[in-house]
Amino acid sequence: MPAPRGSVDDSVATLPELWVSEASQWLSASAGRIAGDGYSWMQAVHWVAGAGLYKPRRHRSHGPRSFGPTTVRVAQELAQLFPCRPGVEYLVRRTELSERSVEYHLGILRETGLLAWIVKGTRVSGGPAQASEFARMIPVEFDRALGMRTVQRDEDAPAYTRAASGIAEAGRELMVKLAEKAARKVRKRRAKSSSKAPAKGADQGAVTAVSDEARCTPMQVGTSAVSSAGGTYFPPESKLASGASKSSTLKKIKAKAAGGRKPKRKSLNRIGRRFQLAGELTRRVEWLRGCSVPRIAWVAREVADAGWSADEVLGWLEMRGTAERVRRGSGLLAVLLASATAVLDTPAKRTAAVEQWHGAQEARRRHRIEQVRAERERQDGAWESPADAALKHEIETAFAHVNQTARNNLHPPVADDLDQPAQASVDPFEISDAERTQMCDQARAQLQLGSTDLIEDTIHALGAAAAQHLLGEDLVRRAQQLASFARSTLTTYKTR
């Protein structure tokens, strides 16, 4: 007679306590192997949850007491990530747990050998927090309990890269059960709406699988053979106030339960369309930026309910025109939209308004391009007389002085008597120190205000060398640098 086949439960009972120290929670120091996919990893997670080998209270006095359904829920979220790089805020949002609870359950998964650090996240003061990256691991105790055979295909690779090649006959039955659990999802227990709530501590820690059966049991009169305390969920009256039947609401609840998430809404309701239009207007209209979105939604409720888009509203505002100075954007918008639906009462009229608005935008763009082009041509073209009357008088005086000097050089004075030498010609740059100081102070004051007209006019009239001799090399050099900077196409100068 053959010997009786050994039970897997007996092999689990002989295994030591499942505990991984903090020093061995890194991938390089882990004794387990990397899981090939999230499905096989969830089999190991459910095995650890039912094996009873993990007893955290032997090592610390705080945190969860065991590997329970909440830890399995956190593991489900990690199994869907590739790479496994979750942030604590992401897990808090997905599992609806507190930040401390998420950190506790991540620690449980590391202490049982199901997770191993690859990169440990950091929090730098003044900078963004970096998420940790984990490797989903299968503990070596799992392979021993189920009789898993592993092989190292690459001899030079680390030990944690070994892969499963077979399983013992004794572990096949348990592997089938673990596969069924891994294919289902653990959901969060809903609050009991019935007054006959179960006693405290009853049915705690059970893993509830998601099935295709209805989870919403309508309220009935009389007795029922099935207790509704574990899965009864009554939708609020606000969900039925819009005229939807109870059967359609139950279908939505079934779809949400089967998929694990709330079904997406195909279209927005009336309030949603108002807020959507208000958000687009506050982003696209300059004088509405900073306004309260709920207030704009209330102001634009009439056009939003009529099905107007943001482009159609902008087309109507182009037809009405706006004020140069807006003190309260919501009030101005309410005035401009007063008769919008009455004037543009058909989609064809609204389409024409949008086309007119696009045409006006194109015309403004072309006008702006022509202005910039004319400004550049004026700056790069011939010299123009300044608008300042005093400055214009000084320039005319300087030109007259230069012309007179040129005539004197062409026709030098002749002496009446040949015995008397001719009188020396007067140097055109010999001006008094007071006049030179006054001219330099005036040029320096204009340069501090960003104007280089006086110095540039002097350079054009007398030449660069004469201007440097008259005003000084430093003042002329600074004026030339500022003028070159103003004519650059990479900067905007003298414009607010």
Walk me through this protein's architecture.
The termini are far apart. Helix 2 (38-51) packs antiparallel against helix 3 (69-79). The chain has a 3-stranded antiparallel β-sheet. Strands 4-5 form a two-stranded antiparallel ribbon. The protein is built from 20 helices and 5 strands. It is mainly alpha-helical and 496 residues long. It has 4 domains: 8-183, no CATH class; 238-264, no CATH class; 270-352; 389-411 and 427-486, no CATH class. The chain is elongated and about 120 Å long. Residues 1-8, 194-246 and 415-426 have low confidence and may be disordered. It has helices spanning 8-14, 38-51, 69-79, 88-95, 99-111, 140-146, 172-183, 246-259, 270-284, 293-299, 301-305, 310-320, 329-336, 340-343, 347-380, 389-410, 433-448, 453-462, 464-471, 473-486, and strands at residues 33-34, 115-119, 133-138, 148-151, 163-167. The longest helix is centred in the C-terminal third of the chain and has 34 residues, at 347-380.
Count of individual beta strands:
5
- Beta content comes to under 5%
Number of helices: 20
What distance lies between the first and last C-alpha atoms, to the nearest angstrom? 100 Å
State the major sheet. 3 strands, antiparallel
Radius of gyration: 42 Å
When the domains are counted, the total is 4
**Order of helices and strands, N to C?**
HEHHHHEEHEEHHHHHHHHHHHHHH
**Mean pLDDT score:** 76
Share in helix:
40-55%
What order do the strands of the largest sheet run in, or round the barrel if closed?
A: 1-3-2
| 3D shape | elongated
Secondary-structure-based class equals mainly alpha
| Residue runs with pLDDT of under 50 for 5 or more positions | 1-8, 194-246, 415-426
